[in-house]
From TrEMBL:
Pfam family, one: Acetyltransf_1
UniProt name for this protein: N-acetyltransferase
InterPro entries the UniProt entry points to: Acyl_CoA_acyltransferase, Bact_Acetyltransf, GNAT_dom
Alphabetical list of CDD domains matching this protein: NAT_SF
Alphabetic keyword roster: Acyltransferase, Transferase
Domain N-acetyltransferase residue range list: 1-174
Length: 186
């Protein structure tokens, strides 16, 4: 099940970020970046992000969980900020991460659907995302779901320069597969 994240999800999302980043970026990002993913700092960050969701109506944060309530992945999206809109479009999918043990089961597609529908409901009809250049598995997934290469840059993260590439969807209606009423997510 994918649902809108709640304040009580902060510890689970922090643990997911630590785990999924270490799974996805081992051998891609510098080891000090992955070693620096301290749970107390991640927890503070996610508590802040969950409060942001309360005041920024364009920002959506989602969590996927198993039937027994185990967190399996998370995603975040919102309006594109600054000059990024010339590359990505109106909306940005900030993060999509799924535990390696649960990849290939449709959760990534479900997150893409949830984020694209969320953005469209807010009048953000085009969008995109940034992905670490060396993350070939994620890049293949974004190609598969119709993403178009839109550019490249270097992101600064914990003092490191990380090469990233952009994928965009000029019409999020296509990605969202909207055929009828969109759920409210409330």
């Amino acid at each position: 099940m994918i649902r809108r994240a709640e304040h009580t999800d902060a510890p689970a999302i922090a643990q997911l970020q630590q785990l999924t980043w270490r799974e996805a970026y081992a051998g891609i990002l510098p080891a000090p970046v992955l070693d620096g993913l301290a749970l107390p700092r991640l927890l503070r960050n996610w508590r802040t992000e969950l409060m942001r969701q309360d005041v920024d109506l364009d920002y959506g944060l989602f969590v996927a969980e198993s039937e027994d309530g185990q967190a399996l992945g998370y995603a975040a999206c919102g309006a594109t900020e600054g000059h990024e809109s010339t590359i990505l479009g109106d909306g940005e999918i900030h993060q999509i991460y799924v535990k390696a043990s649960h990849q290939g089961r449709g959760l990534g597609r479900a997150f893409m659907l949830a984020c694209s529908r969320w953005l469209v409901m807010r009048g953000l009809f085009s969008g995109g995302l940034w992905v670490v250049k060396g993350n070939e598995k994620a890049r293949a997934f974004y190609d598969l779901v119709g993403g178009q290469y839109a550019g490249a840059k270097r992101d600064r993260f914990q003092g490191w320069q990380i090469p990233v590439v952009a994928y965009s969807w000029p019409d999020l209606y296509e990605l969202a597969g909207i055929e009828s009423e969109v759920p409210s997510w409330l």
